[in-house]
Amino acid sequence: MNITVVGGGYVGLVSAVGFCEFGFEVCLVEQDSKRLENLKVGKSTVYEPGLDIMLRRHIENKRMVFSGDLAGMAANSDAIMIAVSTTPSDDTDLDLTILHNTIKVISSALVKGKYAGIFIRSSVPVGTCSIIAENVKFIRPDLIAGQDYDIIANPTFLREGTAIKDFMSPDLELIGLNKDSLKARELVEMLYDTLLHLQIPFVYANFESIELVRSVIIALSATKMAFINEIKEICNRTDADINVVIRSLVIEQKSGENALLVSPGIGGSSFPRNMRILSQFANSLGLDLKILNGAIQSNTNRIRQISEKIINLITDDEPLNSKRVTIFGLTYKAQTNDIRESASLIVIERLLSEGISVYLYDPAYKPNSEYLERIPKKVMENKKFYLTNTPYEAVVQSNILVIMTAWSEFYGLNYDKIRELMCKSKGKQPIILDYKNIVASSGKNV
User: In Å, how far are 12, 94, 366, 370, 384 from 81, measured between CA atoms?
Assistant: First the structure.
């Protein structure tokens, strides 16, 4: 297999050396003549522990060669790894000029009938690979995607200082495809056979999902760093030990995967209250915890935006007081009767204030429930608020269904039947807003 890595910088050089370690022969294409000459004699373009030694070893054993001829190498390659810089020299955030110019050269050089996978490993924003795919199609209309070539999003997570380890044994490998391609999958499996044997998880998805995953992982890590620095300032002004805080956060698991579940907002008796208490305590010390305060404000905005979205979606020539909204779930989470600071209750109160009829189904709050006294009087006494015994009863002639709580019962419902029962006035399709990712198509509706 002929592998070409384009770009001799951090990502490109580490990737090239890494594929050599996997047993492949690699040509590294570098357009900068000075860099190219240094690489040819085994001088690394970046500092990374062990990289120089590995580079020289693979030059000596003939596994790695270098070239400045991008078009020539692309024409003969089975896999082309693009790792050119997207960081501009003027310190602005992004410049995709080199990337797009590289794509032009490669596209023009591709040989019809000879399949090549074009891997995008450079750091790019969401939507870039789709643009690249369109550009290739425009430049080479004679080529067929999935047959002559594929664009493959394959972002990296190479940390400076541990980049070689990160390449050789990553936590996961991300693979983005515009559409499923048998040839692309076969090529990926051949290139990363070593990782597959190590049982490294591979995530396949569309371009946008994969591009976003990389950005979100990095942003979440950075947010954690910024947040712990804010907490360190509290420790500096009290007798608290930041090391105890950090060790406890590492050990504690509840804030791990569960904290990443999609929701209509943070509710319940604990989280919102404790966030406010910590914020107020920091304020008393003269500190402004911007990360925490931002989370509090984001939660408030999230719940308000749900109400606004519902109202905007059902606004037409008919008055709001003729509209009917169904809410699935009143409690702030499933398996509880707790409605304290429930996002659902806040939304219901707003809809009722607009004169909209609200039909609620919640397994813990049926018409004869023993917990009804927990619902505020102004809601219970509102003549446009209705409790229902079944989810199907709740959606009859409803203009919109909003799923707010992940009760297990909701996963087994027949949503085709639900859509049939909902209002279909003026030829409009029934709308389902799924804020718990329960309905298969929820990602398109929320």
Answer: 8, 20, 58, 63, 60
Q: Report the share of the chain in percent with pLDDT over 70.
A: 96
Q: Cα Rg for the chain, rounded, in angstroms? A: 28
pLDDT at 351 over 90: yes
Find all residues with CB under 8 Å of 164, minimum gap 6, and list them: 14, 17, 18, 48, 49, 50, 51, 54
Position 254 scores a pLDDT of 65
| Element (DSSP H or E) covering residue 358 | strand 357-361
Domain 303-445 has CATH 3.40.50.720: yes
Alpha helices in 368-421 (DSSP H): 377-380, 391-395, 408-411, 415-421
Least confident of 17-26, 189-198, 247-256, 382-391: 247-256
**CATH 3.40.50.720 placement within the chain:** 2-209, 303-445
Please give the backbone phi and psi of residue 440, each rounded to the nearest 5 degrees, phi first. Answer: -55, -35
Q: In the numeric block, which tokens belong to residue 338? A: 């707790």
Class of domain 2-209: alpha beta
The per-residue pLDDT for 441 is 46
Please, which residues have CB within 8 angstroms of residue 207's CB and are 6 or more apart in sequence? 127, 128, 129, 130, 133, 151, 153, 176, 177, 178
Q: The pTM is what?
A: 0.83
Residue 442 has pLDDT above 60, yes or no: no
What pLDDT, on the 0 to 100 scale, is given for residue 347? 97
Helical segments of 285-325, H only: 290-314
Which secondary-structure segment (H or E) carries 73?
helix 70-75
By CB atoms closer than 10 A (0-12, 13-18, 19+), residue 222 is: exposed
Report pLDDT for 255: 63
Question: Contact 364/436 with Cβ under 8 angstroms?
Answer: no
Cα 404 to Cα 319, 328, 355, 361, distances in angstroms: 25, 6, 20, 10
